[in-house]
């Protein structure tokens, strides 16, 4: 297909019409269309990673994982990203960037499909249950008290080597999928941003990049919304009919269709990756005639110097680049303002990495809500609040033309206020409900030293040690199963649903319990908690734009691209990788009763909710305080540098030619000859 139509007007008009005609006849030569495609791809890519975080508590239940293990699983994609980020810095514009972005999208799609495979290979989800029909067939169940001596049979568990290996294989698929997800996502954002910046006009480039940054924040929000939707479906909805699904949504044993979201997100990524294979390696500069008519601005010499340094890097071989990278890293990290601001951002990133992964789990445990509802709150309230904070922070910077010193002050105030707003979160919650045999002693029980230790009211019931079907007595005491409450019978409604368990020896004088957990009794505090949590996120994100400007203005123009690459590498190594693991270990330290599978610790069933809240929110505030301290130190060096520049300006001192100095440093490090300044 031809890219231009035959001329139909006079020769004078042909020249003015060629560029618009080229843009309208071929969408793939339009920067605006590329921004649209890239926004959709970024949204779908981050939809996958955001969705993974939204189902982390469900993954724990399904695979029997501790929070530390699930946090490690969630952060594995950062390993793949970290390994390949250096190569992205090296390749720059050497490669066909749109095609490489498309290939990265395909890898992300394959990774998402791979993470859904375990569901189709694993057997049906098993849970403690009583047959919900009128014939009361209760064999192979530990739900109600059975006056038998078959305790050993009930407590026996299939732990063959084949079953163990199968579980490990299923988990390994999630691990490989996470690693591939990180690798595939490496070229998408850096190459997309550089491609837009290269071919967009100077006037439109900030607008396009702002759109892409906003989309990158909204992506995880859509991931939580997707998680909220799919977790309302039962995990085995594709294998069982509606009549065969005995559990109801909201039951503490409920596991949602965690795999379904991966299929949806993977399909979106694959679809939005296709257009990239049709974009050219280089496209016409947007509004090129306008750019030419503006003439050479005062910033042109600086642009030429930066271009000189970029060309020098592009001429290096891969081996030379890898050898020079440590020197470039050290040179950049020796800038006090850059190092301190990046470390402050690392603290905030570590906070966000652990907060986003486990905030749904926190809401589930603290306020007794479903995973679906918790994800809905995060996706529709908390994430939009953070996006609004970023946008308002950027608007303040633009409206008041904030200086470097003002940016540092804005960051300090933002973090300080966020700490003050987060303080009430430490007190918005309740203590753990009274659970018989775990944290509660009462008159009817002679011994509550452990779940496996029978007491007088249920010692003849042969209860399964690892039974989990919570029931609640009218006095607010929770039992981990009807059997442990000494219940010998059960009542059903007309539809076969359990109404209550009766004839319970451990519950006097009521003698009956209702199915389901008693809950923490803190649901009324959910609204104020979400208000302060969202307000904290909103205020904290006000500093994102000013902190980013501090980073850009603290390094030499020719080092900006690499400085940003180093910044994100430090984010991955110091925050996004260890953050979820640190949070997961902290959460595990508050567990008071673990599920056991084959005599090995699996997922946690009950937490000390007060300790959970204090340690979880306290860790968040610890990172905030660290960030505040680092911003204060950065402010000191900003002021010190401004005073130095003022003294130099008064005596007429000038800094030596930074362009020549940078070129000489590169020449000495790389063994290459830098082009002379006079020839630029």
What can you tell me about this protein's structure?
It is a single chain. The chain has about 675 residues and is mainly alpha-helical. It folds into two domains: about 25-130 and about 160-285, Up-down Bundle (Growth Hormone, Chain: A), CATH 1.20.1250.20; about 300-420 and about 525-600 and about 630-680, Growth Hormone, Chain: A (Up-down Bundle). Helix content is about 60%, strand content about 5%. The protein is built from 23 helices and seven strands. The strands form two sheets. It has a five-stranded antiparallel sheet with strand order 2-1-5-4-3, with no helix packed on it. A two-stranded antiparallel ribbon has the order 6-7. It is globular. The model is unreliable at about 1-25, about 130-140, about 150-155, about 290-305, about 440-455, about 655-660 and about 660-680 (pLDDT under 50).
Q: Give the count of helical stretches.
A: 23
Number of domains: 2
Strand content: 5-15%
Strands of the largest sheet, in order across it?
Answer: 2-1-5-4-3
In round numbers, the mean pLDDT is 78
Globular, elongated, flat, extended or rod-shaped: what is the shape?
A: globular
Number of strands: 7
Per the CATH scheme, the topology name of the largest domain is: Growth Hormone, Chain: A
Class by SSE composition:
mainly alpha
Could you give the distance between the termini?
40 Å
Radius of gyration: 30 Å
Series of H and E elements: HHHHHHHHHHHHHHHHHEEEEEHHHHEEHH
**Largest beta-sheet characterization:** 5 strands, antiparallel
Give the C-level CATH assignment of the largest domain: Mainly Alpha
CATH architecture of the largest domain: Up-down Bundle
Low-confidence stretches: 1-24, 131-141, 149-155, 288-304, 442-454, 653-659, 661-680
Helix content: 55-70%
């Amino acid at each position: 297909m031809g890219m231009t139509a035959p001329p139909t007007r006079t020769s004078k008009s042909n020249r003015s019409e060629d560029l618009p005609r080229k843009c309208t006849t071929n969408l793939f030569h339009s920067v605006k269309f590329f921004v649209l495609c890239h926004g959709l791809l970024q949204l779908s890519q981050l939809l996958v990673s955001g969705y993974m975080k939204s189902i982390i508590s469900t993954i724990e239940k399904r695979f029997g994982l501790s929070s530390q293990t699930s946090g490690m699983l969630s952060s594995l994609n950062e390993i793949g990203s970290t390994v390949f980020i250096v190569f992205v810095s090296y390749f720059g514009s050497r490669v066909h960037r749109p095609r490489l972005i498309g290939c990265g999208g395909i890898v992300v799609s394959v990774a998402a499909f791979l993470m859904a495979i375990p569901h189709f290979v694993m057997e049906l989800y098993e849970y403690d249950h009583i047959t919900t029909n009128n014939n009361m067939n209760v064999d192979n169940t530990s739900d109600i008290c059975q006056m038998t001596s078959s305790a050993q049979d009930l407590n026996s568990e299939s732990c063959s080597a084949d079953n163990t290996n199968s579980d490990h294989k299923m988990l390994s698929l999630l691990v490989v999928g996470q690693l591939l997800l990180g690798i595939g996502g490496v070229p998408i954002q850096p190459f997309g941003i550089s491609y837009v910046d290269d071919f967009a006009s100077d006037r439109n480039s900030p607008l396009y990049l702002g759109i892409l940054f906003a989309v990158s924040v909204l992506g995880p929000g859509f991931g939580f919304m997707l998680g909220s939707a799919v977790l309302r479906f039962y995990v085995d909805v594709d294998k069982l009919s509606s009549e065969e699904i005995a559990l109801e949504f909201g039951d503490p044993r409920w596991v949602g269709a965690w795999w379904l979201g991966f299929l949806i997100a993977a399909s979106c990524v694959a679809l939005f990756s296709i257009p990239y294979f049709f974009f050219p390696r280089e496209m016409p500069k947007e509004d090129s005639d306008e750019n030419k008519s503006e003439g050479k601005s005062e910033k042109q010499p600086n642009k030429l110097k930066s271009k000189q340094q970029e060309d020098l890097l592009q001429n290096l071989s891969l081996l030379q680049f890898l050898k020079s990278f440590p020197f470039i890293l050290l040179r950049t990290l020796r800038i006090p303002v850059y190092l301190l601001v990046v470390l402050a951002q690392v603290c905030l990133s570590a906070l966000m990495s652990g907060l986003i992964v486990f905030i749904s789990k926190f809401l589930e445990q603290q306020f007794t809500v479903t995973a679906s509802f918790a994800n809905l709150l995060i996706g529709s309230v908390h994430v939009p609040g953070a996006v609004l904070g970023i946008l308002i922070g950027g608007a303040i910077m633009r409206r008041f033309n904030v200086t470097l010193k003002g940016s540092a002050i804005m960051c300090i105030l933002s973090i300080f206020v966020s700490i003050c707003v987060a303080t009430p979160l430490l007190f918005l919650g309740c203590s753990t409900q009274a659970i018989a045999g775990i944290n509660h002693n009462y008159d009817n029980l002679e011994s509550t030293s452990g779940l496996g230790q029978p007491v007088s009211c249920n010692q003849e019931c042969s209860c399964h040690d690892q039974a989990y079907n919570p029931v609640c007595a009218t006095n607010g005491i929770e039992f981990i199963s009807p059997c442990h409450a000494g219940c010998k019978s059960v009542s059903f409604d007309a539809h076969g649903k359990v109404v209550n368990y009766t004839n319970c020896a451990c519950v006097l004088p009521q003698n009956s319990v209702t199915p389901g957990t008693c809950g923490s009794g803190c649901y009324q505090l959910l609204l104020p908690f979400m208000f302060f949590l969202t307000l904290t996120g909103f205020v904290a994100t006000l500093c994102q734009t000013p902190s980013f400007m501090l980073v850009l203005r603290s390094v030499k123009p020719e080092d900006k691209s690499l400085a940003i690459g180093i910044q994100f590498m430090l984010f991955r190594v110091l925050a996004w990788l260890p953050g979820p693991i640190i949070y997961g270990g902290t959460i595990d330290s508050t567990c008071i009763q673990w599920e056991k599978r084959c005599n090995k610790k699996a997922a946690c069933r009950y937490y000390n909710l007060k300790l959970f809240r204090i340690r979880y929110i306290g860790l968040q505030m610890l990172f905030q305080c660290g960030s505040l301290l680092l911003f204060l130190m950065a402010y000191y060096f900003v002021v010190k540098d401004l005073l130095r520049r003022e003294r130099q300006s008064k005596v007429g001192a000038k800094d030596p030619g930074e362009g020549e100095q940078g070129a000489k440093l590169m020449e000495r490090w790389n063994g290459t000859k830098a082009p002379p300044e006079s020839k630029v």
